[in-house]
Amino acid sequence: QVQLAESGGGSVQAGGSLRLSCAHSESAYRRYSMGWFRQSPGKEREGVAAINSIGTKFYQDSVKGRFTVSQDIDANILYLQMNSLKPEDTAMYYCAAAPGYVYPAGWSRPSAYQYWGQGTQVAVSS
């Protein structure tokens, strides 16, 4: 059973930065596609960024140029560097993992991922 643990959330002012981390429990991390999702109260969970099992990166249009997804494969850690944060980025952020390859057309669908972390809260004030 894969376990995912997010950290790094917090409260910042608009324009600030945060770096989220997600620790993956398995040594076979490199075989997984990994994603970052977020959810605000009353809204559906949405894909923010992802790296699939061959290293291709994907971003939601609203975060392109501001957020960067990366990974340390040796340490089994996924990162999300978030710069120029906006109040609309306020949400609970979740890390997700899918065994194997996630196709580009499906990277942002929560149903494509089998394992989920508990989430870390990000709050951006104006």
Explain what the structure shows.
By secondary structure, the chain is mostly beta strands. 0% of the residues lie in helices and 48% in strands. The protein has no helices and eleven strands. Strands 2, 4, 5, 6, 9, 10 and 11 form a seven-stranded mixed beta sheet that branches. Strands 1-3-8-7 form a four-stranded antiparallel beta sheet, with no helix packed on it. It starts with a strand and ends with a strand. The mean pLDDT is 95.
- Count of alpha and pi helical runs: 0
| Cα radius of gyration in angstroms | 13 Å
As a percent range, the share of strand residues is over 45%
**Number of strand segments:** 11
Described by strand count, sense and barrel closure, the largest sheet is:
7 strands, mixed
Low-confidence stretches: none
What is the structural class? mainly beta
Mean pLDDT: 95
- Please give the oligomerization state of what you see: single chain
Order of helices and strands: EEEEEEEEEEE
> Ends: how far apart?
40 Å
Percentage of residues in helical conformation? under 10%
